[in-house]
Amino acid sequence: MDDEVKDLLARIAQALARSAPEDWRVLTLRISCAGDMTQTGLIATRASGTLDRAVRHDADLHLAASLLRTAMHQPGKGSWYNAHLTLDKFARLDAVYDYDNPPFQGDVERRFLIDDQRLYPREPAMLPLWHPCRPGGPTVPLWDDDDSEAEWIGPS
Fold it and tell me: In the chain, what are the domains?
């Protein structure tokens, strides 16, 4: 892990701690991205075990999440679409990065996925089956519309 990624993860952990409600036990940050769009949501697990889905976070957390995705881009592999980061009361931050499932729970316009491929190019073999930039088009449907197939965008 490079220094930029470490710094961004520390920045995210600090922003999570600032956002924490009283009596929290675990904070879960969900990040979903496509192209230059980033969606973040924060859930607190309270000491009682109840979930608080209305936790507000500051703009710095959202920005750091977006920057993390950019910093983690690898040529040919691209970057993740979804991530779940959890912070516990002991300041341990765990992260799971998802390179395979559609962003925004599949509710994403194909143009954002095409833009994502331009920004974070993946080799054809690294594109998920649902991705519109797969050579020959997606083999697993993500949309119900009749949009034309996308062309491959990325390294040859």
Answer: 3-98 (3.30.500.20)
Query: Can you give the pTM of this predicted structure?
Result: 0.87
Closest CA to 93 of 27, 4, 3: 27
The residue to which tokens 């920045």 are assigned: 11
Q: What is the mean pLDDT of each run of 10 residues along the chain (156 residues)?
A: 96 97 97 96 97 94 97 97 97 97 94 96 95 86 50 38
Q: Which of 136, 148, 25 is nearest to 89 (CA)?
A: 25
Q: Concatenate the DSSP letters of all residues of 56-100 into one string.
A: ---HHHHHHHHHHHHHT-BTBBB--SEEEEEEETT--EEEEEESS
